[in-house]
Q: What sequence folds into this?
């Protein structure tokens, strides 16, 4: 035990609210408890730490600090905790923790700043050491308490499956039975790596526990925010138009207010809100709104015509924001045996999470407090911006996190939470359920940005890559620049930059962010070069990855899984891609065929091999890879959001199609490379593999290039006829 | 406004609403049966799939006026008492759901598939389930779950 932390040091009182800061804290009830005497009383009682509640019968409740959007945080984070606590899993249940980042935040987002955020595939990475430490401390409290009671040195005790055991006389006591003897030591030890459980004794980590959220999800009882029902609840909808940022002018206010059930109209800068007694009444009124819209920065923008402008920007002499500059790219290109220059493009895509955005908000009568029920990926402000929106103290806002019907980045925005708050303020203290229709969700979405990418490469006469340059033109900073680095490739001269252009369209992280477009461009470029020099794309990458053994292991695994070098059916071909996302290294391979009459590409099989560090729940990793790859296929073959004169052209699943069951591959196989490195992110690793693997298979099959996402039948036919 | 009686999960519910009210809002917001989900509102996603006289229907595209003949309505809440319908069990065994939002609809659609065709081929599964979207990409596990359920029920019969 290297560092001892005094528990008292961490107990601070701010405005009469007891806050316990640090890994081990107080029970969630205490956080909200304003009565100091009450806090002391609770303190004396038996509760373990902020992370866990223990009952006399041994039932254990573990608090999950992350959002659950299907990625399995409920199970994997509590499995890490239960492993170090040495709990009996059959007695474990899991609840969302309070949204209090000082207690439940992770500093893996920004150093010295604790944040609760479920994004970027970082939940397991961000909480691995926290959950181990907290689980080990909970176990320590139990052992220390019973050591005192039994009057034996703690060294002589051990634990197994929810019991403390005296190794001398083999006397056992269940965790729940320790409650009468529990006491909180003044000092809680901080455990170091060597004091944690030996991985060979793991009972949960690396094995498959059934996901704890699944039973409720097959019964239909899992609660999403859209399912919340509160007494006196009203309904809210907004009309936002399809030109982002346009200002509304309502022409028929009195007509709308006269409609049955309509209580109030609430103007927003960019929308008109309606509050009604029932949802059907609110929606009926929404249809009858007569609004004149102002112009906005996006007016005049046409998403399918802008690439010419972007090509010009890519050709300009002055550089944008330089992201990578290693060696000397210019001299590499000047002295090259052969140079390549290729442009890649990608259109906007939309999140299409199955649960449309919504939130339930209740503002106190005096306007000085608020309670929110929401499916959120959380954020740097764990109160989701509500305190500053209402101008009230953070501790007066309570966020009740619900299951998310999909996140994919969209639910890390707070626009819908603040809209709900804006409505609820008008009718306080009655709660309001704000629902976005699917049409609202599509047309006022926040999309993965459209980009143009100019890649240049130089090789020597034998095809060894000497320089690699990548210029991305688009809007949104890291939204378009993420994934542009290729540290793992052994290329002496590397250069990458971002050139900004703004179109006034709302943008947001979309599963894997810039990785999908950028890796598409990079990996296709690698295959174009390999193909030019008549080299096998897998062998070609093997040389590039020679100095990255972990990366190479994924490549070797994937090519053996799919029998890469074997012959394949007529009109079928395989394509390969390698990439890093959220610290996870992955090789993906797909097998496709092309209908040359219709231009439809079919993906028959997909193989991937990933090194994600320590894997907590292998089957869940597989599920994430399957889902990520299917979402990738969907976006690559079907999804396209277009803008004409600033107006979003799509509105629902009829004109924004996503993958259906008839389109799925026969199999998606996932291999996990054994590793003892700390866990890294998996949720976004599958998606960016898809575009490049498909385009590379297409190149092998047809000798033609697909360089513009998505690969619609029309674009495929154009490529075939080129 | 018209008073109307609905037979849902073998229970009578009286509603007093406009007869053009969507059954989806009646179930979810007026009666609190929130297992049936809203995804698109225009019969394109299948999240709201229920059974009307044991046939799969999209609740979002039915209005109260279409349900005035005492039809038997079943929602996910009425499928089994303890969530242990063979399809639900197979869903757990395959660990099919991710976010879970589409899964009530998927399960309701799969139940009628197996009622009509106890041993479907993969192609038949895909064709029957094609209108039920899943953004999380759980399709492969849904197919697997249906195959598990089909195997178990066909062994019994
Ligand atoms: S909500 Fe009914 S089919 Fe989509
Ligand atoms: S499980 Fe999330 S949409 Fe199907």
A:
């Amino acid at each position: 035990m290297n560092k001892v932390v005094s528990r008292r040091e961490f107990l601070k009182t701010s405005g009469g609210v007891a806050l316990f800061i640090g890994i081990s804290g107080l029970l969630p009830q205490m956080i909200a408890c304003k009565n100091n005497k009450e806090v002391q009383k609770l303190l004396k009682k038996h509760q373990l730490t902020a992370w866990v509640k223990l009952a006399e019968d041994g039932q254990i409740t573990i608090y999950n600090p992350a959002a659950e959007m299907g990625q399995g945080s409920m199970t994997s984070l509590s499995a890490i905790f239960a492993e170090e606590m040495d709990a009996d899993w059959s007695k474990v249940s899991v609840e969302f923790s309070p949204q209090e980042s000082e207690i439940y935040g992770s500093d893996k987002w920004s150093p010295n700043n604790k944040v609760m955020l479920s994004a970027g595939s970082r939940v397991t990475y961000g909480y691995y050491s926290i959950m181990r430490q907290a689980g080990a401390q909970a176990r320590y409290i139990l052992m220390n308490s019973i050591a005192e009671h039994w009057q034996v040195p703690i060294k002589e005790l051990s634990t197994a499956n929810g019991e403390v055991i005296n190794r001398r006389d083999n006397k056992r006591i269940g965790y729940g039975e320790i409650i009468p003897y529990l006491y909180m030591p003044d000092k809680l030890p901080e455990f170091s790596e060597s004091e944690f459980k030996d991985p060979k004794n793991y009972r949960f980590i690396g094995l498959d526990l059934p996901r704890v959220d699944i039973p409720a999800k097959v019964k239909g009882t899992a609660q999403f925010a859209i399912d919340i029902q509160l007494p006196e609840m009203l309904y809210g909808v907004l009309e936002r138009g399809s030109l982002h940022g346009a200002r509304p002018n309502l022409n028929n206010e009195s007509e709308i207010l006269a409609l049955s059930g309509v209580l109030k109209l609430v103007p927003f800068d960019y929308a008109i809100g309606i509050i009604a007694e029932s949802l059907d009444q609110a929606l009926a009124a929404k249809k009858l709104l007569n609004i004149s819209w102002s112009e906005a920065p996006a007016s005049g923008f046409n998403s399918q015509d802008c690439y010419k402008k972007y090509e010009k920007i890519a050709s300009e002499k002055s550089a944008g924001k330089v992201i990578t500059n290693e060696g000397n790219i210019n001299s590499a290109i000047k002295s090259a045996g052969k140079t390549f220059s290729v442009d890649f493009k990608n259109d906007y895509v939309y999140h299409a999470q199955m649960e449309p955005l919504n939130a339930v908000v209740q503002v106190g009568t005096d306007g000085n407090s608020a309670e929110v029920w929401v499916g959120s990926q959380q954020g740097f402000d764990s109160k989701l911006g509500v305190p500053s929106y209402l101008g009230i103290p953070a501790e007066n806002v309570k966020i009740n996190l619900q299951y998310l019907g999909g996140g994919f980045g969209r639910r890390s925005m707070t626009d819908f939470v603040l809209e709900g708050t804006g409505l609820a303020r008008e009718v306080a203290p009655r709660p309001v359920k704000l629902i976005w229709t699917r049409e609202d969700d599509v047309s006022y979405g926040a999309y993965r940005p459209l980009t143009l990418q100019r890649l240049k490469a130089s090789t020597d006469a034998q095809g060894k890559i000497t320089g690699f340059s990548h210029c991305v033109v688009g809007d949104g900073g890291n939204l378009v620049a993420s994934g542009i680095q290729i540290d793992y490739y052994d290329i002496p001269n590397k250069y990458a930059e971002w050139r900004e252009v703004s179109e006034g369209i709302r943008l947001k992280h979309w599963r894997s962010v810039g990785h999908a477009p950028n890796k598409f461009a990079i990996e296709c470029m690698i295959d174009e070069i390999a193909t030019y020099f008549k080299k096998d794309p897998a062998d070609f990458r093997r040389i590039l990855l020679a100095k990255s053994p972990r990366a190479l292991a994924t490549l070797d695994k994937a090519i053996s899984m799919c029998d890469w070098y074997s012959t394949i059916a007529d009109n079928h071909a395989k394509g390969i891609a390698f990439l890093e996302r959220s610290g996870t290294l992955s090789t993906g391979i797909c097998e496709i065929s092309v209908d040359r009459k219709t231009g439809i590409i079919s993906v028959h099989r997909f193989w991937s091999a990933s090194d994600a560090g320590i894997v907590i729940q292998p089957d869940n990793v597989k599920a994430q890879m399957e889902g990520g790859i299917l979402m990738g296929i969907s976006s690559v073959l079907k999804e396209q959001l277009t803008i004409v004169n600033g107006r979003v052209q799509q509105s629902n699943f009829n004109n924004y199609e996503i993958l259906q069951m008839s389109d799925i591959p026969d199999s998606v196989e996932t291999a996990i490379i054994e590793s003892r490195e700390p866990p890294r992110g998996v949720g976004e690793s599958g998606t960016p593999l898809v575009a490049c693997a498909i385009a590379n298979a297409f190149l092998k099959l047809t000798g033609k290039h697909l360089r513009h996402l998505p690969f619609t039948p029309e674009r495929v036919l154009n490529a075939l006829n080129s | 406004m018209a008073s109307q009686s609905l037979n849902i999960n073998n229970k009578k519910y009286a509603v007093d609403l406009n007869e053009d009210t969507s059954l989806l809002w009646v179930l979810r917001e007026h009666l609190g049966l929130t297992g049936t989900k809203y995804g698109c509102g225009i019969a394109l996603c299948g999240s709201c799939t229920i059974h009307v006289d044991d046939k799969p229907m999209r609740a979002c595209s039915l209005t109260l006026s279409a349900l005035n003949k005492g039809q038997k309505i079943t929602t996910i809440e009425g499928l089994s008492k303890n969530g242990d319908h063979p399809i639900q069990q197979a869903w757990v065994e395959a660990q099919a759901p991710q976010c879970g939002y589409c899964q009530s609809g998927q399960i309701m659609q799969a139940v009628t598939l197996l009622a009509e065709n106890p041993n479907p081929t993969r192609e038949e599964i895909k064709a029957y389930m094609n209108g039920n979207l899943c953004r999380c990409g759980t399709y492969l596990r849904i197919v697997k779950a249906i195959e598990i359920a089909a195997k178990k029920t066909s062994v019994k019969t």
Notes: The pocket of FE2/S2 (inorganic) cluster (ligand 2) is lined by residues A 70, 354, 406; B 97-103, 134-136, 138 (CB under 6 Å). Residues 1-34, 43-47 of chain A have pLDDT under 50 and may be disordered.
